[in-house]
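step=encode ok
step=design start
structure_in=
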C-alpha cells in the first residue's frame, strides 16, 4: 500500500470508530415551541418541549434564562428558574423517549438555549 492509501485507510477506520461510539452532545438537547392559542395576563402562551435526541441520558440540563419572565407560573420540579439559568426536570435525567414539556406566557417567544448538561451512556 502507498503511504497515502495507508493514511486514508486509517482515517476511515477512525471515523468508523467514532460513529460506533454514537457520541452525545449538549446539542442533542433540542427545544421546540408552539403557541397554545391562549393568552395569560395579556401574554401569548407557549408550549415548550425539551427533548434529548440521543440514546444516552442527559441530566442537570440547564438553559440560559436571562430575560425570561413568564406571567404564568411553572412547576419548579419541571423548570426551576433563577436569575440567569433554568434547571430542567429538577436535574433528573432526560431520556431519549421522554421529553419534558411545560407552558409559559411571554411576548415574544423566549429563545431558551441549553448551556450545560451531564451525559451518561450506559
Ligand atoms: C405540548 O406539546 C406536547 C408535545 O407536542 C403535547 O404532548 C402536549 O399535549 C402539549 N401541551 C399543551 C398544553 O398544548
Ligand atoms: C447528536 O448531535 C450530534 C452533533 O450535533 C449529531 O451529529 C448526532 O446525529 C446527534 N445524535 C442524534 C441521535 O441525533
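sequence_out=
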Amino acid at each position: 500500500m502507498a503511504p497515502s492509501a495507508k493514511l486514508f485507510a486509517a482515517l476511515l477506520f477512525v471515523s468508523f470508530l467514532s460513529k460506533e461510539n454514537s457520541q452525545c452532545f449538549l446539542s442533542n438537547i433540542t427545544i421546540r415551541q408552539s403557541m397554545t392559542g391562549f393568552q395569560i395576563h395579556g401574554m401569548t402562551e407557549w408550549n415548550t418541549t425539551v427533548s434529548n435526541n440521543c440514546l444516552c441520558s442527559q441530566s442537570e440540563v440547564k438553559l440560559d434564562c436571562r430575560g425570561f419572565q413568564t406571567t404564568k407560573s411553572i412547576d419548579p420540579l419541571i423548570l426551576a428558574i433563577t436569575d440567569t439559568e433554568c434547571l430542567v426536570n429538577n436535574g433528573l435525567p432526560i431520556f431519549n423517549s421522554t421529553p419534558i414539556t411545560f407552558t409559559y406566557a411571554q411576548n415574544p417567544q423566549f429563545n431558551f438555549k441549553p448551556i450545560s448538561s451531564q451525559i451518561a451512556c450506559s
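step=design ok
step=annotate ok -> The CA atoms of residues 58 and 119 lie 5 Å apart.
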